[in-house]
Amino acid sequence: MSVRLDRLDLSKHVIILTGATDGIGKDMARILAGFNPKRLVLPARNKEKGNNLLEYIKSSNGHANNVEIWEMDLADLQSVKNFANKFINEVGELHVLIHNAGIGVQNQIIKTKDNLEIQFQVNHLAPFLLTSLLLDTIKKSVSTELPGKIALTSSEANQFGEIDFDNLNLEKGNYWNPIKAYGNTKLMNVIVAKELGRLVQDDNITTYSLHPGVIQTNIGHLNYTISNVLFNIFVSILRLKISSEQGAMNTLYPIFPLEIKETGKYYNLGIEHEPNKIAYDQEIAKKLWDVSEQILKDHNMI
């Protein structure tokens, strides 16, 4: 049975939602904007898409009160740091951070301007950086009455992911499985949500990783056309595809529950679900955390 989101009052919540210009993020932005947030900040790397998103929210809800489009590009670590510094200086409070942006690349290796594999950076390292930079702000903003929430949109692809510390940036080449590298980064999302949940368990912050369902989005826009066509045929035959709006509901439902959720859990279609068993390996979690921090230090980001 599909989950549905009850009417919420977010008038005390400052929210950041990444990946809002396309797919489920667009519907998540519309839904959240309709719940009267104190401020809803939507980072966008493409200014035109950001403006189109604002118009979409206005046309859907009748207004876009307290909705703001800010510039940020997850494929540029300095852009992420600039966004965080601006947010801390100009807003200074944050209650909900939803990392929804993501990218899937098949059968090719694309490097960012930071010389990192694009899926590793956009899906894992940049959200890790943004969380690190904004964590103190979240801790100072939340309370027992107004708890904080940090969520990462993952994928069931985490189930066949692995953490190979010698191939994080595909240094050893790509995998034969065309979505293996993507699955690895989605496993990283689950691991980070669990480890972060452990680290902030006494700070009135709950963490989540979530699979929204299979939706036709812009996540594979860098793929060759034939790859996207074959993927869409595959999910159509298996009837796996759901609507963007339902994907948005599946993602938001666990984040804004009627009852308190246990931190660090993984959700599939809005329901708690078991992730890849690697996500429970504390040694791998700590090493991934440490390695991620070291890469960011090497790039002078933290």
UniProtKB/TrEMBL annotation:
Pfam families: adh_short. InterPro entries: NAD(P)-bd_dom_sf, SDR_fam. Keywords: Oxidoreductase. The keyword Oxidoreductase applies. The keyword Mitochondrion does not apply. GO terms for molecular function: oxidoreductase activity. This is Env9p. It comes from Rhizophagus irregularis (strain DAOM 197198w) (Glomus intraradices). The lineage of its organism: Eukaryota, Fungi, Fungi incertae sedis, Mucoromycota, Glomeromycotina.
